[in-house]
Amino acid sequence: MTTAREMMTAGAKCVNTEQTAADAARIMGDLGVGGLPICGKDDKIKGVVTDRDLVVKVLSQGRDAGAFPAGDLNQAEAATVGADDTAEDVLATMRHYKVRRLPVIDQQRLVGMVTLSDVAKALPHHEVGDLVETLSTA
Predict the structure, then answer these.
(1) pLDDT per residue over 68-125, tens digit each?
(2) Of 135, 122, 60, nearest to 88 (Cα)?
(3) Domains of the chain
(4) Is 79 left (phi over 0), alpha (psi -120 to 50) or beta?
(5) Sign of the dihedral defined by the CA atoms of residues 85, 37, 119, 90, in that order
(6) What is the pTM of this model?
């Protein structure tokens, strides 16, 4: 059975809650990714910020990305998966939270990110199609 650890991209980076939206954008640009976990001072995941979040919640509102705290982009609940969770668990979590990216944790520590494309490579086409349909109605 395939696990999140086998599907994920290792070495994910966090933006700290004390950093800014501009810092998050810079890190995403440097890494070439569209989403980034937000970590607190305790190194625990507080949420995920996406490129869309930056546009909708910061730039389109005329806010200064260099002064807007990344921590203010947290979701109400941080969705994560465990490194040893199965591909089916990852799929179910993505469906439940209607997200395309999930931080992968091992004993509360960030070890990677798993994305919709990672899932698409690991699961049968009909399961991925069901997930895409669920996400399209979000």
Answers:
(1) 999 998 776 789 999 999 988 998 999 899 888 999 999 888 999 998 888 877 776 6
(2) 122
(3) 4-136 (3.10.580.10)
(4) beta
(5) positive
(6) 0.83
